[in-house]
Amino acid sequence: MKYCANCGNPVALRVPEGDDRQRHVCDHCDTVHYQNPRIITGCLPVYEDRVLLCKRAIEPRYGLWTLPAGFMENGETTEQGALRESWEEARATIDISGLYTLFNLPQINQVYLFYRGHLTNLDFGPGLESLEVELFTEQQIPWDELAFPVVNKTLTHYFSDRRENHYPIRSEDLIRRR
Amino acid sequence: MKYCANCGNPVALRVPEGDDRQRHVCDHCDTVHYQNPRIITGCLPVYEDRVLLCKRAIEPRYGLWTLPAGFMENGETTEQGALRESWEEARATIDISGLYTLFNLPQINQVYLFYRGHLTNLDFGPGLESLEVELFTEQQIPWDELAFPVVNKTLTHYFSDRRENHYPIRSEDLIRRR
After folding, report:
1. Is the peptide bond before A60 cis (omega within 30 degrees of 0)?
2. Fewer Cβ close by (within 10 Å): the C or N end of chain B?
3. ipTM of the complex
């Protein structure tokens, strides 16, 4: 951020009075511009013994497999966002069972939420951001071609929890060593 | 948002190519400015049979009672944010037990997360944003002077769940009728 979104004048990076961290501050109109983490919300769509994955048609991780997920939008709930992304990326309609995993990625200011859900039918297929959409059994999962660690971890938890038929909500911080 | 934070020129509000909702777009430097929901993270601090509440010294809801919570900052995890807010607002140090409630407030683009936790000692007191900090038994809770519905709901769940000594994670959407 270089300019004030409110008045167009240059902003300064400094600690505002009464605050304890640097913010982008406009000394012309006195606006403090806060920046906060974003939520990525998605689904773990299940059909019988298989889970749905999308092969990414966009960067980053073009060509690798992921669960349908994306940035939560203003005006929607986390569940609505997860369903919207499942439709956009996989043309899939899902009946959500509940929240399943939460991941903090503080280095990139993201919080991931994945909901467990069941595909309501087999009418799915690639949306604009996917090359392919497929169902995989545990043995078929392309473990070496998964796009993100949060996808690997969510799938690993799922296949383990499925043996117990018990799906506690998992919360994990993925701290990257620098 | 009226001006581009990247180049300072006026932005337009329109649907970018390949998108399906209005964004603030800069036609000078081609930046699309996305706006996303923010996370408010906080604690439900417990000491024996009492819970800690803060009397707000700031608007909105000046003078009403709340659980320590605030906007999650870049670079931290949801738990770290909850602990930071508990320190800032109540000078309280807390041992977190786990995530407890998640609330969607889509009308104001907020997602609330509250963590259950235990006060590690009784050395607490008002931070800059609080007038008072006190411990309350279930009978003492000032139900008519709580600052936010999410606080009321989290406390109600807690006292109910405490009878069973079982604290499932609660997820709820607070949709305001217009």
Report:
1. yes
2. C
3. 0.95
Displacement of CA A21 from its chain's centroid (Å)? 27
In this predicted model, what pLDDT tens digit does every residue of A53-92 receive, in sequence order?
999 999 999 999 999 999 999 999 999 999 999 999 999 9
A173–B77 C-beta distance less than 8 A: yes
d(Cα A94, Cα A102) in Å, to the nearest integer? 19
Residues of chain A with Cβ-Cβ distance to B34 below 8 Å are 71
The residue type of B17 is E
Euclidean distance between CA atoms B100 and A68, whole angstroms: 25
| Residue A84: Cβ within 10 Å count | 18
- Chain A residues close to B74, C-beta within 8 Å: 35-37, 106, 109
Give me the half-sphere count of Cα atoms (radius 13 Å) on the Cβ side of residue A95: 6
pTM over 0.90: yes
Q: Which residue in A has a C-alpha nearest to residue B173's C-alpha?
A: A77
**Phi, then psi, of A139 in degrees rounded to 5:** -70, -25
Please tell me the distance from the alpha carbon of residue A57 to that of residue A88, in angstroms, as a whole number.
12
> Considering only CA atoms, which of B152, B93, B151, B101 is closest in space to residue B127?
B93
Residues B65-79: tens digit of each pLDDT: 999 999 999 999 999
Nearest CA in chain B to A76: B106
User: Assign residue B8 a region: left if phi > 0, alpha if psi is -120 to 50, beta otherwise?
Assistant: left
Tallying the residues shown for chain B, one arrives at 178
The residue with tokens 């986390």 is A78
B25 phi and psi, to 5 degrees?
A: -120, 135
- Token readout for B39 is 């996370």
Domains annotated for chain A, with CATH where assigned, are 1-35 (2.20.70.10), 38-173 (3.90.79.10)
Q: What percent of chain B has pLDDT over 70?
A: 99
DSSP state at residue B177: P
